Amino acid sequence: MAPFLSLSVIFLLLQFPFLSLSTNPEGNALHDLRSRLSDPNNVLQSWDPTLVNPCTWFHVTCNSNNHVIRLDLGNANVSGTLGPELGQLHHLQYLELYKNDLRGKIPKELGNLKTLINMDLYDNKFEGKIPKSFGKLKSLKFLRLNNNELSGSIPRELTHLPNLKIFDVSNNDLCGTIPVDGNFGSFPMESFENNRLSGPELKGLVPYDFGC
Ligand SMILES: *[C@@H]1O[C@H](CO)[C@@H](O)[C@H](O)[C@H]1NC(C)=O
């Protein structure tokens, strides 16, 4: 019995550091994302959770302080859902998930990404509402949600984003009126086409969720 027991102990000791090394919160968040996704092209193969941080993983870019600033999984043939863990990427500037087969709701926790500049979720199968929490994305310049299955109205909170330059929600199932406040006055009508939107709102006259 003794040799068997000592082998078991060695096995446990070898396994324990393997499990305990993944203490990097951003690496954990990305690994949680990986566990949600089906990845037939193996683009996530380099995402090894035993490394100290995710900075050497393909499709992940870090700054000089080893914080994740880019996630580049556009056109990667991944499918599945997103979870709240993406809200842990507190230094993220570029979230590129366009042209995949992503489904389900857009997590409201993405609204915690205060440094986000560019969010590209277009050409997927996201459903449900555009999170109101996106009104907290004060650094956001580009928000492309077009070609999904999003419903509900355009959150009025988005009109308070000071840096938003490009906003595209075309080809969804959105309802209500098109806001005209803030930067929304300057977005072209093509950004809103192919929805159930009922045209630009008249200030104070038309309820903005009219017809929803
Ligand atoms: C995407 O994945 C599917 C399997 O889910 C596969 O059949 C298809 O060839 C892949 N497409 C590309 C462009 O790699």
Description:
The chain is α/β, with parallel strands linked by helices. It has one domain: Ribonuclease Inhibitor (Leucine-rich repeat, LRR (right-handed beta-alpha superhelix), Alpha-Beta Horseshoe). Helix content is 15%, strand content 23%. The strands form two sheets. Strands 1-4-6-8-10-12-13 form a seven-stranded mixed beta sheet. The radius of gyration is 21 Å and the shape is elongated. The structure holds 2-acetamido-2-deoxy-beta-D-glucopyranose. 2-acetamido-2-deoxy-beta-D-glucopyranose (NAG) binds at residues 40-41, 77.
Q: Compute the gyration radius: what is it? A: 21 Å
Span of the ends, CA to CA = 70 Å
Which structural category fits the helices and strands?
Answer: alpha/beta
- The SSE order reads HHEEEEEEEEEEEEE
Pfam families: LRR_14 (PF23598), LRRNT_2 (PF08263)
InterPro entries: LRR_dom_sf, LRR_N_plant-typ, LRR_R13L4/SHOC2-like
Keywords: Leucine-rich repeat, Repeat, Signal
What would you say about this model in short?
The protein is α/β, with parallel strands linked by helices.
List the helices and strands and how they pair.
Blueprint: H1 2-20, H2 25-36, E1 37-38, E2 60-62, E3 68-72, E4 79-81, E5 94-96, E6 101-105, E7 118-120, E8 125-128, E9 142-144, E10 149-152, E11 166-168, E12 173-178, E13 196-200
Parallel strand pairs: 3-5, 4-6, 5-7, 6-8, 7-9, 8-10, 9-11, 10-12, 12-13
Antiparallel strand pairs: 1-4, 2-3
Bound molecules: 2-acetamido-2-deoxy-beta-D-glucopyranose.
